[in-house]
Design brief:
Layout (H helix, E strand, L loop, with lengths): L21 E7 L8 E7 L17 H14 L2 E7 L1 H7 L1 H14 L7 E5 L9 E5 L2 H4 L1 H24 L5 H4 L5 H10 L10 H23 L4 H11 L4
Parallel strand pairs: 1-4, 4-5
Antiparallel strand pairs: 1-2, 2-3
Helix pairs in contact: 1-5, 2-3, 8-9
């Protein structure tokens, strides 16, 4: 009779489940019309668990801020990186997101044995990596990364608000809300807007048309110099 020990199956460790540190990666800011896309990478410390980790979109701003500080205090290491507006317009938002994710992983103080990335795409990395759909709700390390990326980008938008308060960045965080679109219509685009995004491109087109109209009006009616200058400053596209 076969021994009982042969009746119990043992799971063999697969090559892609190599032991070692596990890093979670997520991004914030793919959809907004302005500002950089931000990515974070986190390696949690199993001996210092953090309660309440979840997809950052399901948390209140206060919960995110509280967890943000705990993650920085308790994780083995964290890294936050970004891809600029210029990189977004040059490479497209998907590729810029991959660039930010790669930078976040490369910025980790400790090298992970495996990286788990939220979504269905992977950046180019020199370590083992796996894409996990809805990973920000399933994998604690990815949840932590989503929180760090979200809080960091929200703070960046608050800084943009102090520079350009008429766009309302502190409220909509760069997303295409009715208020933001109205501000684009009124003021044109600023240096932090993503020119490759259609609402911003439309604003730049209106700005160019307005600039042509200003030149024609100035030639025909040189008496309206002050009015022309005011409209020009409000509507000209940033270089």
């Amino acid at each position: 009779m076969r021994s009982r020990k042969f009746l119990k199956a043992e799971q063999a460790r697969l090559v892609w489940d190599a032991p070692g540190l596990l890093a979670g990666v997520d991004e914030a800011g793919r959809g907004p019309l302005a500002g950089p896309v931000v990515a974070a990478a986190v390696i949690l410390d199993d001996t210092r668990p953090i309660r309440g980790l979840a997809d950052s979109k399901t948390l209140t701003p206060l919960q995110r801020e509280r967890l943000h500080d705990q993650i920085l205090a308790k994780a083995l290491c964290c890294s936050i990186a970004q891809a600029s507006v210029e990189e977004i317009d040059t490479h497209n938002i998907l590729q810029a997101t991959m660039i930010a994710m790669r930078r976040a992983v490369e910025g980790l103080r400790l090298k992970p044995a495996k990286v788990l990335v939220d979504g269905n795409r992977l950046p180019t990395l020199d370590v083992l990596a796996e894409a996990v759909v809805k990973g920000d709700a399933l994998i604690k390390a990815i949840s932590a990364a989503s929180i760090l990326a979200k809080v960091h980008r929200d703070r960046l938008c608050e800084q943009l608000h102090t520079e350009f308060p008429h766009y309302g960045f502190a409220g909509h965080k760069g997303y295409g809300t009715p208020e933001h679109l109205e501000a684009l219509l009124k003021h044109g685009a600023c240096v932090h807007h993503r020119r490759s995004f259609s609402p911003v491109a439309a604003a730049l087109t209106r700005t160019a048309a307005g600039a042509s109209l200003v030149i024609e009006t100035q030639t025909a009616m040189p008496m309206v110099i002050a009015t022309v200058e005011t409209v020009h400053l409000d509507l000209r596209a940033a270089p």
